[in-house]
Structures are given as structure tokens and as C-alpha cells.
TrEMBL record:
It comes from the Bacteria. InterPro entries: RNaseH-like_sf, RNaseH_sf. This is 3'-5' exoribonuclease domain-containing protein. It comes from Streptomyces toxytricini (Actinomyces toxytricini).
Amino acid sequence: MAARTARPSLYISVDIEADGPIPGPYSMISFGAAVAGRQDGEAYTPADPELQNFYRELRPISDTFDPEALAVSGLDRDRLLREGADPGAAMDAFRAWVREVAADAGAQPVMCGYPASYDWTFLYWYLMRFGGGSPFGHSGCLDMKTLYAVKARVPLRAAVKGRMPYGLRSRRRHTHHALDDAVEQAELLSNLMLWPGPGAAPAAAP
């Protein structure tokens, strides 16, 4: 039997802001996404994350929220209740955007985050709860924290941005605006993908 040929992957950096720790009782109030790059076999090609991106602010889905979690994003919950996008419409638009950029790249979409666990939990729950499923499937996510830990050969708990080689980190500030942070993390992903590992100078994405 011939070996199955793996399709290329299109990595999409996603950052979400929420008003609590888990979806359902709490709400995702904004999310941003940016195309980070394409991998075909061993070759990784970075993208400019400012060229293909997506952002929405969402209407909360419950009355429950954690004031400390809400304060992180700086978003006004009362304004979101009046003006935030309907979650179903936002998920439909996001699915369409993901499928379009993936088709243009001739690749399968993969969500990536730092760390992916929190963002993926909310994003996947919303995609499944509101409409037509996940364009990433049930497991199409990459955790940048794990990627760095494996490449740097450090324990996962030591895989923090502050301990990374300076050249790996994006020059952008982490603002807790979901699109800003998705773009920042897209640059980090590309730097990590191109990094040979400890002892080699980080090769910043062009």
C-alpha cells in the first residue's frame, strides 16, 4: 500500500478574550485570527500576519461573568450586550474566512495559540455550539508553548516567553486586544518554526 501523502498545513494564530474561565457559563467576548504561515513537508513559509486576519467582538451569551477576567480585555460588557456581534453570525463568518484562506493556500487549516488550551477551548466550543462545526476538525490545533518546550528541550512549565531567546519573540506588545495578540503570536509561531533550536541564532521570519 502506498504511503499516504500529508496535505500542507496553514497555521492560523488565534487569540480570544473571555469574561470567565470556561465557555457556556461564561462568554467569549472577542477573538482575533491571523494567518501565520504554511508548512509543506519540512518547508515552512511565513506569512505577513497583517495581510490576512479576522476580528469580532461578541455579544455575551449569559449573565454570569468574572469582573477580573473581564477587566483583562478592557472591553465594556454593557456595550457588547448592545453592539456585539451575534455569536452564530460571527462563527459563520469565521468559518467562511478560514475555509477561504485555507483554500487559497491549498492547505488544511490549523489553529495555533500560546498557550492553545484556553483559546482552543472557547473557540472550538463556540464553533460547535453555534452553527456548522469546526473548520479545524476536533484536533487541528498547535500549542506554541509545547512547540517551544520540545525545541528548547526545557520542561513545559519553564516554557514562558520571558525565558525565550530574545530573537524568538515578536517585537510587538501583548496588548490583550485579540487581533493585536493574534498577530503578535503569528510572528512568534513563524520564528519558532524556523528556529533550529538551542545553540543556534533564532532566524526571525522575514
